[in-house]
Amino acid sequence: SFFRCFKIFDIAHALTSSPQTVFTAACDVIKEFYEDNVIYLELRSTPRAVKDVMTKVEYLQAIIQAIEVSKSKFPQILVKLLVSINRKEGYESAEENINLAIEFREKYPEYVVGIDLSGDPTRGDLFLELLEKSRKVGLKITVHCAEV
Description:
Blueprint: H1 2-5, H2 7-15, H3 19-35, E1 40-45, H4 56-73, E2 78-86, H5 90-107, E3 112-118, H6 128-136, E4 140-143
Parallel strand pairs: 1-2, 2-3, 3-4
Organism: Solenopsis invicta (Red imported fire ant)
Cofactor: Zn(2+)
InterPro entries: A_deaminase_dom, Ado/ade_deaminase, Metal_Hydrolase
């Protein structure tokens, strides 16, 4: 069913609850795409914090580290990052993620190329200001529009 397919995210979140497990998972994903002969990959991920274990900054840093390590192991694949915002998490979380995307874009312009807007497409107007802010600093935008 439609809702059952999203259960995979619960499993993924349970398996990636620390910077080390996020790093390992990102490395594994990149390796799998490399083995499938992909030459350009845009990872998209919503930064997550786990109380007393991992901040959103540490989460994103783990993905950046995985991209950097994979770059030397698999130079044939070019990997970029889209920082995701999920409409169902509300404006405050989206604003925090946009600010992190901008911060990480400044630190890692060779990796962070855009943002990804996911979740309920009927709740998009709330985020227009944040999308404009993102675009003004050069971040590209991808939008999920049929997830209901």
